[in-house]
Here is the input.
Amino acid sequence: MSSLNSVATEVTPGLEPAWRVNLRELRLYLRRNPGLAIGLALIATLLAFVIMGRFVVPWDSAFPMSGPASSPPTAGYPFGTDLRGRDMLAVMVYGTLMTLKIGLLAGIVGVFFGASVAFVAAYHGGWIDVVLRVIVDVLITVPSLLVLVVLASALQKSMTTTIMALTIAVLAWREPARKIRAQVLVMRESPYVSVARLNGASSVRIIFLEMMPNLLPYLCASLVMAIAWAVLASIGLEALGLGSPAEPTLGMTIYWLMTDSAFMLGMWWWILAPIVVLVILFVGLYLVTAGLDELANPRLRARSS
Amino acid sequence: MKGLQLRGLTVNYHIDDGLVRAVDATSFDVAPGERLGLVGESGSGKTTTALALIQLLRPPGRVDGGAALVDGIDLLQLSPAQMRERRLRTVSYIPQGAMNSLNPVLRIGRQVENALIDHDAGGDAPSRRAIVIDALKGVDLDPSVAQRYPHELSGGMKQRVCIAMGMLLKPSLIVADEPTSALDVVTQRHVMETLGRRQSELGAALILIGHDMGLMAQFVHRIAVMYAGRLVEIGSTREVLTAPRHPYTRALVASVPKFSDRGELGGIPGVTPSLRRLPSGCAFHPRCTMAVDRCRLERPALDGAPGLHQAACHLAAKINLAPASVAPQGDRRSSLVEFRQ
Amino acid sequence: MTVPLLELDQVEKRYGPVTALKALSLTFGEGKAPIVAVAGESGSGKTTLASLLLGFTEPTLGEVRYRGQALRKMRGTVRRDYRRDVQAVFQDPFAVYNPFYKVDRALSEPLKLFGISKSRQQARDMMWQACEQVGLHPEDTLGRFPHQLSGGQRQRLMIARALLLKPKLLVADEPVSMIDASLRALVLGSLRQLNRDLQIPIVYITHDLATAYHIADAIIVLYRGEVVEAGSAETVISSPQHPYTQLLVGSIPWPDLDRPWGAGQPILKDQTSGMPSSGCLFAGRCGQAMPACAQHPPMVRPRADTAARCFLHRSAPAFAAAELSQFLSLA
Here is the structure.
């Protein structure tokens, strides 16, 4: 059926500006793929919460002794406070922000490195490709949590959110490398790449000026997925207590509410707030990743249409 | 009524700045067993016409008028569910590159069988399998092909599988959209001969969409020429090729390489107009060597009557038609027409 | 003896067990500018030949030489010269343009990279002129994105690109097969203009013998990696000597009701496997196969201007493969 779609637009070349066609295609796609739409909506809601929350609560309130300890939700503290007097609203706002920052940093570094490896391997082929591919394939089979736990433990003394992000980046680059390599392998055979070679263009020029611009949408999708993975990985590590002890990220909040016996003390507000935020985050990230994966993988897309 | 009666088909693209007419009040008939060639360049409306007929037009395209009668039923009035049922049974569409849409992970026999199952046809499993074997034999394929995967077949063989699938439920109308575009000449001939033979066996009407006048000459009985969404000439193959009455057709025929005049390559000056900004009056007038004022002001309608050699040109009436008997090949003057004012 | 521009010396290309192109020797001399058609179906080896000529792939056996130097070892300035001297026009007029950029870039890039133009303005002027030379309106063509031009315009722009580079050899790989039949004449006319005005030899790869008949001087017919017929394009297509060429020519859809395709042709059948590959490769599909065809037929010369590889002409004088290039006036 997708061939018919292309026939319809081929028949009316240049009738509508390209961006308008893409926008309409996007809208139609979102309608057919509600998962992606819902996921995007959830993440957008969370982002709105974080952005507006910064005007409502100050940064310091997310730290201990900002208010009365163990207080249930009141007018002054709508989400209550935890055992050490952190304003839970502030913790949610700034914690989410910190967690997202970790994800962003890890994702960007991961995709940057992964894409570089992918381009070099795919474009040059030969033994470089074989070596890099073996490395990536082996690393992919390695259970990430194990490696990350070991790494994070080793770096425990100097742990900060930045170090956490870089730790995760160590493994975040694997999947983008594999996926982008596949795309580059296909692109390498494009006639316009052949023409570029006829122009006498160097490999570097071809990679950055010919192939990269056409990969931008795919790179963006990879980036979002890498960020999602990194966010979840960081929460997992921090919930085990391996995060930065001073910074109230979402994961550390989970860790603290467990070690400070929130359950036993019956402080439901302390438990509820992070759980809700986490659920929205997890579900949203999952739906977005699944939706983007289908977008990027045409075979999955064909089945749904 | 058998065959296809197309009346006044109009297709518009409803885009934000208004309406763009992709097909403009086009009418033609195709009798059972007859082959009509729908010829035009990209953007002429020929594929849009086919897609509209079988309700496969995508938004913002929409059928805004006309009737397409096959077996007495107007295809354009059917609901999507009814149309889905009719597809393959009443009308069958073989798209360009159909061979590429075969499922690479299913065996051929299975895919053909699936076409039967999807349309609740063929009876039980053994009867279905017998139909599949017959269908493959009908397109000159060895029954062992049923056990193979698409990648094991050549392009021509795959296309014949698609033809077999298209003919499974004995449709009354077959629409083939450039079915041989990616194939070499020998395979093309094989595929077209197979298509023609199966069509004759079924007694179905067939529309062949394309841009290759040579292919049309070898295959179809009648030719309809489209330009900028309008039908500009229609007649028998011999009439249209040897004595074209519309200047566009004449230029089209002249631009196809022939055996007789080696080294002579014609072309059509100018560019196909954008459907958004069609020239006033006759859409071809800016590129026409014979245009007069009237051509710019008034849009010509098809002259004559359905069944005759018609052309939509103000000057066609004044043109002396070449005699029906064809002059010897070497004499090119026989295809030129006298212009009498 | 002068060094030929480009030479294929007993070149053979294999992909695993499949031989895409069998031992072929072809020489392109400087100063000769014929249009040579290379005809064949998919799997004939014509695409492989193009890849070898353009240096996109290396031969399994034999050597491709540019001005006497082997391509696979060439680096630096010589490689640069080779790149400039051997250019191509490809089949898909849409895919040859990077959709991210305007079409101008297809012309400005090589001008810049080969140092042909010294300034932006000069590049602009040269591009403008090249467009006009191929019959395009520069103001309607330059500055647009690929999807805004028709197939014919895009392909002619690619020819304009070749005009700018003034190569010494142009490989045209099925340049009109994806263009509407009515627009083909314009593109072919531009190619012919390139050949006549700039004396650039063209290797015209096609499966469409009708166009080859019109613009080619010489023709090589390939079947499953092997040359089965070669000679003057006009005579070979008018009166083919090899059964495969006869099949090809007989299947041409001429727009002429008095020239039906398939006239006098055997019934078509699919390629049957299980034929001895030591014999004639076409025997399985040939309507005139004989017991002798179990042997591999040598090239012979049934006519002064035609060479064919078929036992039907076994009494004709022998033809050495090495003579091929001279025979076709390539060198």
About this structure: The first strand of chain C starts at residue 6 and ends at 15. Chain C has a mean pLDDT of 89.
